[in-house]
């Protein structure tokens, strides 16, 4: 039987699609434990929000041109 | 301004013999057409010697390649390694069979480049081992028997829509992403933004799939902590 601490450590695995035994163990625990339900829900919200608003720095056009220029000079 | 013929910028140094023949075909493609072009058209134009095609590829993938390199050799050498990877990619472009996507192919190249470099500089590729990273699950969270000692607090913003409206929170998230250790940052980006599989992530970052999962989990926990704090204080 999983403890809350185990659930907190394996929650991402569960959200990312765990294998069957873990999935069932997690579901069983979550059915009985409102704290872990809340934690897993918060983690899912976190993941979904960050994947939407996470502003990954991208390379600007001028930077890119410089890199391509270097590539030319090198070849 | 972007609108010029491709081969105006093609130099003999970059174009292969077959590339020159292809240049004719790409002659009428404009830079703005290339921006919306599919991967094959972009690759064809690059092989034909189009600087514009290369620039678009670099704009699209360079920062991701730097992130992967940083996870392996550390941030100080990452830019250098990524640029070397472009050079390798450029030399191998005509041999790229296009069974995988361009992104996958480029990430494989930068990963190999970084691993080689890490060996040369005798840097160890070790998993970030900082248990204090995530203060959310610190020692006081759980009692000795593994139950919550400090329970997850309630959020007043607890729907995707409510969270989407908090512009200040988004700023906090982005600030936090910049501060993550390089391995976590790359793993998070590959998984949660690029939606890559753990199998691919583990290959690109040179860690086991289990460790790739750990890295992603840690990154999410750090972000969870930020949101949790924001719910309480309205600040980062
Ligand atoms: Zn529990």
From TrEMBL, chain A:
Domain (Putative zinc-finger) ranges: 4-37
Pfam families: zf-HC2
Name by which UniProt lists this protein: Zf-HC2 domain-containing protein
Annotated source species: Gilvimarinus gilvus
Automatic annotation (TrEMBL), chain B:
RNA polymerase sigma factor 70 region 4 type domain mapped to chain residues: 171-223
InterPro entries: RNA_pol_sigma-70-like, RNA_pol_sigma-70_dom, RNA_pol_sigma70_r2, RNA_pol_sigma70_r4_t2, RNA_pol_sigma_r2, RNA_pol_sigma_r3/r4-like, WH-like_DNA-bd_sf
Keyword list, A-Z: Sigma factor, Transcription, Transcription regulation
Membrane-spanning intervals of the chain: none
Segments forming domain RNA polymerase sigma-70 region: 57-123
Entry protein name: RNA polymerase sigma factor
Family that this chain belongs to: Belongs to the sigma-70 factor family. ECF subfamily.
